[in-house]
Amino acid sequence: MDNIEGLNFLIDYENVNESGLDGAEHLYRTDSLAVFYSKACGNISRKMMNMILESRCEFYAFRLKKAGKNALDFTLFPEWES
Hints:
Layout: E1 8-12, H1 13-16, E2 32-37, H2 46-55, E3 58-63, H3 71-76
Parallel strand pairs: 1-2, 2-3
């Protein structure tokens, strides 16, 4: 059974690391997955990357310019940064 509409997943990899990708084996080609990471993050394992690519979902990886607490929040909403 195909997921007709598709789902969008935004992953703050800096906070959740690879556990944030649990369930990747259930991605559909109609889904999209965006992973936000920084130099402070570990790498995505080859096994996990293969699952993501085999799903044929739309996959995006965005490197954050800054690393650290709330880095993604301040990238998405820069006016919050003090």
